[in-house]
Structures are given as C-alpha cells and as structure tokens.
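In the previous chapter we treated chains in isolation. Here, by contrast, the input contains two separate entities that must be folded as one system, with a combined length of 678 residues.
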Amino acid sequence: MSELAIDVRGLTKRFGGKVAVDHIDIAVPQGQVWGFLGPNGSGKTTTIRMLCGLLKADEGVGTCLGLDFRKEADAIKRQVGYMTQKFSFWEDLTIRQNLELVARVYGLSKRSAEIDATLERLGLVARQKQLAGELSGGWKQRLALAACMLHKPKLLLLDEPTAGVDPRARRDFWDEIHALSEQGLTVLVSTHYMDEAERCDRIVYILNGKLVARGSVAGVIEQSALITFLIRGDNVRRLAESLRHEPGVEYAAFFGAVLHVSGNDRAALERALSRYRGQPGITIEEATPSLEDVFIHLQEQAA
Amino acid sequence: MSAFLRIFALLVKEFLQLRRDRPTMGMILGVPLMQLLIFASAINMNPKDLPTAISVADPGPLSHSIVAALHNSSYFRIVAETNDPNAARRMLQDGRVLFVVEVPVNFTRDIVRGVQPDLLIEADATDPAAGSYAIAAFNNLATTALRNDLVGPFAARAQGPAPFNTVQHLLYNPASITQYNIVPGLLAVILTMTMVLLTCLALTRERERGTYENLLAMPTTPLEIMIGKIAPNIVIGAIQSCIILFVAHYLFQVPMLGSFELLAVTLAIFITANLAVGYAFSTIAQNQLQAMQMTMFFVLPSILLSGFAFPFLGMPNWAQWIGEALPATHFLRIVRGILLKDNGFPEISPDLWPLLVFILVTGTVALGRFRRTLD
C-alpha cells in the first residue's frame, strides 16, 4: 500500500454553535486524484482550509504529507499548493509579476527559468505581461494553477477550480491535473461537476459536514443500492408532479429531457410506474443510476 | 404613486443597511460628540496656568511681592524658583516652562532709590499665540504688583511713572511669526494623516479583494507581512517630509537651527509610529470604510489636542493626557525644538522615548491582532 498524502481522522470545525465539518475521516494515498463533492455549504471549503492550515480545526488528528496538520501548518504550507475558490491573485499585477511574487516568497532558486517553464507548460507565455485583473475566467484559473504549482508542491488542494470556466478550458484543466498526478502529485479537488467527479480515482461526498459516501464512482453508485428508471416522451413533463407523490418513488428529477425516477424499493417503484406504463408517447426503462442520481438520493435521505 | 413606492423601497433598504453597519453609526454619533467635547471644553484660546520659572537675584521684600503677584496671577503657574538664571533658561530650552521671569540684583534697592529697574520676562515664542495674553498680564504687573508696598514714604513711587520697567524677550521666534509655529506643526499633522490613511488600508484591501487568503496560504509570517506593508510607506513619508521641509524653509523662511540628521532620525521614528497605528487599524477593521473611520478617530485628536491647532498647555489636564498619548504631540515638540530652538538629543529625548514606546505598543497590538488563519 502506498503512503498516505492526507490522513486525518475526526476532523471537526464549528462556527459559533454551528457544526460546519463533523468528524470527517479522509485518507488519500499519494499520487491519487480525489474528488470532493457535496452541495453548497456542506463543508468542502472548510475542510480544505483546515488541511492547509488556514482554519484551526476544533477537533481531529492526523497528518498531511507526514506532518502533523495541526502543529506543523507552516511546514505543510511550503509543500502544498492551494487554489482558492475565488480568484485570489493580485489583479493589479501582471501574470508574470504574480508568479515572481510567489516564486520569491517560496524562495525558489532559478526563479526566472522556473517561471518560464511554468508559463510555457500552461500556455501563458504570450499573456505574461497582461494584468491578472484583465483576464477572463479561464485564464485566471490557469494563472492560479500555475502559481500554486510553481513551488512544486507534493499535494494540490483545489477548491472548485473550474467553477465558471467554459467546457473546453475545464477539459484542458483536467488533462493537466491528470498529467500532474502521473508524476506522483496527490490532488484533492472539490467540484460540482459530475463529469469531473468521474475523472477522479476516488470520490468523497459530504453533506451537512458529514461524510456520507466514499469510494470509486462505480462503488459509490453500487453502495447506494439505488434503482433508477428513465422515462422519455412528449408528455413526460406533466407526469413528473404526480409521480413525485407515488409511494415508493423517492424522487423524480429531470436530466435534460429525461425524467429519472428513483427509489430503493424495487417492488414499490414497479407498482408506482405500472400505472404509467403503456401511456401513449411514453417509454420507461431501467438504467444504472448516475452519480448525480446517487447524490440527489443521499440528499433526499438526509432531508 | 409607483414612484413613491420605489423610493420607499430604496429607503427601507438604506435604513436596513445602515442599521447593520454599526461602525458607521458609531462614527455618525461619536465624531460630533468628540468634536463637541474637544471644542467646548478642551480648547482654550486664552490659556492660563502656564508653567513659569522665576529666577530671583534680589533677596529684598519687593521682589517677594513680585513673586507673590505672579503666584496670584491666573496666567502663571510657578513650577520652579531659583537664583540661577541659566538653570531657568535651560528649563525654557527643554520646554518644561513657557516663561522665565528674572528679578535682577538690587531690584528692591533700585526701586527705593527711584531708579527704575528692569523686570525681565523671557517667553518661549515658538507658539506666539500661547503666551500673548500672559505677557499682557505680566506688563500690567508693573503698575499693580507693588501697590501695597509703596506706602508711607514711598507713596510717591506709586504715583507717576511705573516703579520698574517690564522687559519682554520673545525667544526662538522674536518676531512672533505664526508660520514658524504652524509650518513645522503641519509636518506632524500631514504625516499623521497620510501615513495612517495609507497603511490602514494595507490588510483591509487584501481582505476585500480576496487576496488575503492567498497571502495566508503562502509561507509568510505576520512580522514579514507587516514589514512588507510598512516599509514602502516609510519611503513615501520620507519624500513627503522632504517636500514639506523644503517648502517650509524656502517659501516660508522657517529657520532650521538644529541638526538635520537628528531631525531625519526622529522623522523616521515618527513616521514608523504612525504606520504602526495604521497597520493596527487595518488588522482590526473588517473593510476599508471601517479603516477610514478609525483613521478619522485618530487624526482628529492629533490635530486638535497635540498642540498644533491650540496651545497645548492651555488645555485641561484630561485633554493633555490624551494629547500625551498621541505621537503627533511629541513630534510637534521635537520638530519645533530642533528647528526653532536648536535643541539637541538631550532636550528632545523626553519626547523621543514616548514615540518608541508607542511603536512598541501598537506594533505588538497589530501582531497580536493579526490572524494567521481565516477563523
């Protein structure tokens, strides 16, 4: 078994009386890409901030890169690249000036060469003299990635790095992530996109500060024991409301034009659907639940 | 009608926001109250009880009467009596007294003989406004002080010309040129204003723009960040000081008697003190507006209670205590001392160490307040 880049247990954070992160255990082996999923406000950002020493954990023990994550935050900071959710580089500096600042703070030798190489790899050479504030979302995100990669960290903590970024740029970004992980870098990345989750080695789903699912994508889907039927047709929109009230139907949700109807009780689900089968212009078929189905299911269960 | 509804909607929003913005409310209520208190009770355009040293070289009874008359005058507070004129003048140089009254040798004898002796008052005229009423009162002494003594055979002395002459020496600023006082004072006030304002935005701007999180995520220590934020502003302060001093000397002909090196060192200390305050504000303030409000709370007393706008010694004790806690007060004395009185290190050191203590305290507060995490 490979060494663990992150190994924390019982991670807990309270803000006032509210528990933001509730006894979460995370163990990420070196060189893997882990996806961190959960609805807004579920505690993803708080967890990531605790791991890189930006927030003090109220409870929890463990290590980050073999260092005590509570006591050795300074040493961890030097080996971790943290990409904030909101763009946090200096908008009144150029791309190159931002990178130079970071390079100096981390005390890199051969700064100029390192910066040139990073600019080259991320395709920022032509734009290096542009002010960061003038960049579009996709380029800002590249700059942020370039900056948090500059000191060659062993662990990348990425907090919703692709929010608001176009599909092409997202794809490029993920290709870069995979290339980095090939080189042995460990990545923990939070996201709301299912296609991104599916590109992760493992995913962790947290809800209201609690870890509710963990594993490979297929594993998480299997663990849920969810049964999903897909309903297609012209009148399917009208059916949704009545289907939601049928016993055995946990939820009915649209994925594009297709209605996904899911539940854990196969018999009850079949019974509920039998009344709709044979209606003109409607097809009903069973399918493997998608990851999103499982997440909706987990949220419904918690509600 | 719908226009009223829209205006009403906006009004409701404004009031809701105003109610949530406690610091702004604090400023709206606090600043006028502070100004009212200061203007109404601290500011005294006719300062009394001014510290005075008397040097008496004549043991005669009439000089006792002069001393008694000074004691009785509401303008003078006798803090030292000596028979050594040089010791008294040193107190004037150090700024411990504003006036020295010298009763000459044979004062009593000369009056008895009908020779009009000179009663000398030396005034620290760096702030010409501070002493003018007191000097007028001193001149009246010539006719009133000895009224009870000049009886019997000396009754004639009480008639006719005054039994003695009053002579006034306005030291350090003999022509009572207001600019000599105001322009060095402006150095203190302008630096206070710009330095505090510049640095109070240091961290709040990072916080508002979201770059603070990045700053913390990098391996920088609070002290490193503080030095990084303060040092560039010291340069700005130095440039500003050069401009002010240049204008003061060449446009307003303010004398520069003392050591320029000493002035430069104290300037650097004073600038640092103000930057430390600004930085402390920026660790406390949640946004730039709050930081500016805090700056206002600091700058206002620095103008009004430092001795810049009004004579320091004319203020009541509580106002002087507040003044003593402000760097501008001490720097004002130092800069006037160096420029106008040719003061050296020994004379300014009583005002130098409070500046250093101030830097230490505010720097500690700032570092203590600095959050290494986002908690």
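Residues 2 and 29 of chain A are 6 Å apart (CA to CA). Chain A touches chain B through 20 residues (CB under 8 Å). Compare these points with the single-chain example from earlier in the chapter.
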